[in-house]
Design brief:
- The complex is a heterodimer of chains A (about 190) and B (about 200).
- With about 190 residues, chain A is of the alpha/beta class.
- Chain A has helices spanning about 20-30, 45-50, 65-75, 85-90, 95-100, 125-135, 145-165, 175, 180-185; strands spanning about 30-35, 55-60, 80-85, 105-110, 140-145, 165-170.
- Chain A has a 6-stranded parallel beta sheet, sandwiched between helices.
- Chain A is globular and about 50 Å long.
- In chain B, helix 2 (about 30-40) links the parallel strand 1 and strand 2.
- Chain B is of the alpha/beta class and about 200 residues long.
- Chain B has one domain: Rossmann fold (3-Layer(aba) Sandwich), CATH 3.40.50.970.
- Chain B contains 8 helices and 8 strands, in the order αβαβαβααβββαβαβα.
- In chain B, helix 1 crosses helix 2.
- Helices cover about 40% and strands about 20% of the residues of chain B.
- In chain B, strands 2-1-3-4-8-7 form a 6-stranded parallel beta sheet, sandwiched between helices. A two-stranded antiparallel ribbon of chain B has the order 5-6.
- Classes of the chains: A alpha/beta (about 190), B alpha/beta (about 200).
- The interface between A and B is medium-sized, with 32 and 38 residues.
Chain lengths: ~190, ~200
């Protein structure tokens, strides 16, 4: 059986400018600390923060470090954002107790794997469990599956997080990011 | 006559670290370090953790970065530090000059029945911190060295890491407020002023 190589209606990908809008939203929200375990889907946003002298960009060894770091930032009067991939959500679960029980804001931008178009079966368990795991811990979850809706979804989540002092996550779907296929790359 | 090989007592260590604390900001790891810091005197500039094991040192980093003019002291246990050992690498990379991390190392998981941690088998936390790039990193066994760490914490030439070998004694609990909302609000009010109540 042939692979499903071609996505119906697929056109040349539009230039992914949504990270620039997200950057503007986060700057307007007063974000000063960014914790991240990188993901390809966040690379443009990461580059924007790297170039911003007002932002402290901290590379983490594991995502729950960022949950704790941003709790400390809040105690010191700074707002932050955590950039992670859906697999990293699983690393954060117990640490989410901290912002939940302390009424602290936590804004998480999660790039998805293991959903639309995924080729790698190992990404499926955590990808499919991401939203349920976050919601089980009391995180408000919103999804963005269209590039045009990412920035406004982040704006909404930032308001929830910083004005109501609780964790809020935006899941940015693979429909926005594009699904990888290493098998296709391996054939080339 | 004091025995030079005697282990330090944890509450003496914490009392000395917090002597003339000034405007020092404290993050205390869950369990006994929380009770030790509280035994030295509950204070709005203390943030004692009741859970979120592994949070203490990274909370210290976020706070130190947000408040570069203040000195931040993290006091935690060996079990808690081992759970977030990667944080030592992250902190070494960020090099916050105003952050000191003190691990009260009784080589035990104290709250759960005094089971041995890896430090009991010789895992050298100070060596790990040094290898990660925290240049001022020490194993502390004597009271005079505790005073040196206390002074370093106030000077702001960090990051500083200290692994203080302490007696595995079980002491009476001294509990701070347990409500995370109260702990957060009073800390922010103390550090940021009344304005913090309005945003």
């Amino acid at each position: 059986m042939a692979d499903l190589r071609t996505q119906p209606g697929a056109q040349a990908p539009a230039p992914a400018s949504w990270p620039d809008e997200v950057f503007r939203v986060l700057k307007e929200a007063g974000v000063r600390q960014v914790g991240m375990v990188p993901d390809a889907g966040h690379s443009r946003l990461i580059r924007a923060f790297e170039a911003d002298p007002e932002t402290r960009l901290v590379t983490l060894t594991t995502e729950e470090e960022g949950v704790a770091m941003l709790a400390g930032a809040w105690l010191g009067g700074q707002r932050g954002v955590l950039l992670l991939q859906s697999s990293g959500v699983g690393n954060c679960i117990n640490m989410l107790s901290l912002p939940v029980i302390c009424h602290m804001p936590l804004l998480m931008l999660v790039t998805m794997r293991g959903d639309w178009g995924e080729f790698n079966p190992w990404q499926i368990p955590m990808g499919q469990g991401t939203q349920a795991a976050l919601e089980a811990m009391g995180v408000i979850v919103t999804r963005a599956d269209e590039p045009d809706l990412v920035a406004s979804t982040v704006w909404g989540a930032a308001n929830l997080a910083f004005n109501t002092w609780r964790p809020a996550a935006v899941l940015i779907g693979q429909r926005v990011l594009g699904a990888k296929n290493f098998k296709e790359l391996a054939r080339k | 006559m004091t025995n030079p090989n005697a282990l330090l007592h944890r509450r003496d260590v914490v009392k000395e670290l917090l002597r003339d604390r000034g405007d020092l900001l404290i993050i205390a790891g869950l369990g006994a370090p929380n009770w030790d810091v509280s035994a030295a005197g509950d204070h709005p500039n203390n943030f004692p953790l009741w859970g979120a094991m592994g949070a203490a040192s990274m909370m210290g980093l976020g706070l130190a970065l947000a408040q570069p003019k203040r000195k931040v002291l993290v006091i935690t246990g060996d079990g808690e530090m081992l759970m977030s050992i990667g944080a030592l690498a992250t902190i070494a990379v960020e090099k916050p000059p105003n952050l000191t991390i003190v691990v009260l190392d009784n080589e035990r998981f104290g709250e759960t029945g005094m089971q041995k941690t890896h430090t009991a088998a010789g895992v050298d936390l100070a060596g790990i911190a040094l290898a990660a790039g925290i240049r001022t990193s020490r194993i502390v066994r004597a009271a005079e060295q505790v005073t040196e760490i206390r002074d370093l914490a106030h000077e702001g030439r960090g990051p500083v890491f200290a692994q203080v070998k302490i007696n595995p004694e079980a002491l009476p609990f001294v509990l701070p407020p347990a409500d995370g909302g109260i702990l957060t609000t009073r800390f922010r009010q103390a550090v940021l002023g009344d304005e913090s109540l309005y945003n």
